[in-house]
Amino acid sequence: MAIEKMIMFNLVAAQEEEHKILEQLVLSEKMHLNFDQDNNHYLTRQYETMITHNKIKTETEEIKLLKNIDILSENLMDIAQGMDINPQIINDFNLNFLEAKKELDKFQDKYKENIYLLKRKLELRKKLLFISHVLESINKQHINFTELRDLEFFEYQIGLLSYENRLQIKKNYENISAIVIHVGNVEDLKEAIYIIAYPKKFTNETNQLLKSLNWQPFVIPDEFQGNLGQVKQEVDIALTEVDKEINDLDAIVYSDKEVKQAVINAIFTRFELEKKIQDIQTKLMRGDNIFILNAWIPEKDKDFIEEKIASVTDKYVVVTKTAEEIGTKEMPPTILKNNRFFKPFETIVQLYGLPSYNEIDPTPFFAITFCLMFGIMFGDIGQGSVYFLIGIALLKKNQVAGNILMRLGGFSMAFGLFYGSLFGLEQHQLPWLPSALKGGPLSPVNIMPILMCGVAFGVTVLSVSYIFGILNSLRHGDIEHGIFGSHGIIGYIFFMSIILTGVSIFGVIPISPWVFILVMVATIIIMIFKEPLTHLAQGKKPLIKGEVGEYFVESCFEALETVLAALSNAISFIRVGAFALNHAGLFLAFLVMSEMMNNIVLKMLILVIGNVLILTLEGLIVFIQGLRLQYYEMFSKYFSGEGIPYKAVKLSKN
């Protein structure tokens, strides 16, 4: 149940070394920056005279260029896109900013014009292919485009209409002062090709009508002259020339792609680093000669960070404080630290919330109890092994899902061995099992013992949940909730009193139920008076803040809610036993149906379908029920999930 120990790292250093220091800190990927500057004014006054610089502040060439880093990044992305390269952040790069700028200049000088030409040629090729495709679809071979262009009193258009709009133009033939000729169809586009010739004085009228029909003009460039056949031939010649030019440009732009990728990655990483540094610089506090940076870092990384800073300068001072020294003024970010078995379950815990720094990490307790719940409710050697194997198969695509399935499958197999269940076949059909397991108290026919085991399991895990909640509250100095609250010590005594009352009524223990009823009443009264009792213990006045009547009305309703919640909590865990019975009963139904069949193939088919349904539908339901018990019955006792995620400043890796 570990949360990484954090310390506040306060750095004061000379401004002349600011860029170098920030570069090392970003590359270290260890600092959760904190720009709360309450104490920075004090640090500025204290260390201003200690840390000085001797250099005159001048705007160097590098500083001038850095102001245009966004433009440089855009230029790099244009070059990379033109070469079909996706820039990546890399760990190893040996370019400083000026070197990266020079490498970018080389790329631009050598390839920018060629990339631009290649783009233009590709656009031209696309246009020529479309022209060629449409010309191939025209079935009127006698058309002469040169003669059409030379008409003195008429204008013409070639264009495309969708099949739907063909009906509309037919309806308007008598209203159009033009000659409309259907000359072909482009089948793959589902569009018809028309030539429309009209007197020049009706140009505007014709254009308005065509626009209303979503007319798509088809323009044949003037350089293509002659009849349809001649134009086709000229377009094919132009396509051949363009293809040759594209091949020549491809050889220049796309050659040595791996080498270019490596250089572009290095330039890209440097530019992204500079942008990250600039972003941090805008948020720093500065004196005349110094700058101040505050960050949360893992305690174990303190020496590593100082070594990084010392490698570039000796003009710095570091002041560190533990989270305990800072107190409640600031909440440190949370880094969960769990072993390999528990690690995958952090994802499920964080769906509810991230533990705060001073909370107990619920991940180990969640992992153990969730796996136990799943195993109890879905115990089967064969079906558990299927989940285990699916988990192994998923590891490459999704490690979290794969690892969780492996663990759930393992617990399912373990409880399947205890129940004596293999793909639904129960104990009496598995002669290799020890005789002690056969027909024992946890046999599916013994309903009450299984249900009571579910309740006992619930009381146990809820007791641990109460203890965690009490410890969390007392850690924060919250006596009201930790001792007198519904999830505190008094709340736990009340919960156990309800359980022991039921146990006493059934004669399991030789104590009168009235003893526990009196304890229940006493604890309810204490919970109603939790605020005045807390203030009395702390020596605070008044004992009740606000209206007294309003307080007692609210407290009584809270007490009623506590009673109902305590009853619900214990009863909810009956479902653990109920689903264990349901698992056995569901397959039993398929087994009975299979035994009704005389055909061995049908028997096997029914059993296979039964196992598939149990693995998919019931497995999902059991998983959801386990989550429900964790989130609503257990987490509510001890887990707030209001932690701050640890976000170390670093370069984003694609």
Automatic annotation (TrEMBL):
Protein's recorded name: Uncharacterized protein
Organism field: Candidatus Epulonipiscium fishelsonii
